[in-house]
């Protein structure tokens, strides 16, 4: 927890979610804050992404896991 130096209001630093260019995320998927999804990755519908996903992979499930490398 931090306080803004200008306003004095309490703020909370949240982890950054990064979704690289060309990534597809299927309908109904949930991506947790702080995750990095690599370039050209494909996340299957209904997946729960709780950890980083490498570039150029197909990942599905709960929790989301890499099942195939895409070329």
Task: Note down, in words, how this protein is organized.
- The chain is mainly beta and 71 residues long.
- Helices cover 0% and strands 35% of the residues.
- It has strands at residues 2-3, 10-11, 18-19, 24-25, 30-31, 36-37, 42-43, 48-49, 57-60, 65-69.
- The relative contact order is 0.19.
How are the elements arranged and paired?
Layout: E1 2-3, E2 10-11, E3 18-19, E4 24-25, E5 30-31, E6 36-37, E7 42-43, E8 48-49, E9 57-60, E10 65-69
Parallel strand pairs: 3-6, 4-7, 5-8, 7-9
Antiparallel strand pairs: 1-2, 9-10
Main sheet: strands, sense, barrel = 4 strands, mixed
Kindly provide the radius of gyration, computed on alpha-carbon positions and rounded to a whole number of angstroms.
15 Å
Shape: elongated
Total beta strand runs: 10
Q: What series of H and E elements makes up the topology?
A: EEEEEEEEEE
Give unreliable regions as ranges: none
How many helical elements? 0
Task: Give the amount of beta strand, in percent.
Answer: 35-45%
Task: Please give the alpha-carbon distance between the first and last residues.
Answer: 43 Å
Comma- or semicolon-separated keywords:
mainly beta; 71 residues; 4-stranded mixed β-sheet
Summarize the structure.
This protein is mostly beta strands and 71 residues long.
């Amino acid at each position: 927890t931090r306080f803004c130096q200008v306003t004095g209001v309490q703020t909370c630093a949240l982890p950054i979610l990064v979704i690289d260019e060309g990534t597809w995320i299927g309908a109904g998927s949930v991506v947790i804050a702080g995750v990095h999804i690599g370039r050209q990755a494909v996340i299957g519908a209904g997946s729960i992404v709780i950890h980083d996903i490498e570039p150029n992979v197909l990942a599905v499930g709960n929790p989301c896991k890499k099942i195939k490398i895409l070329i």
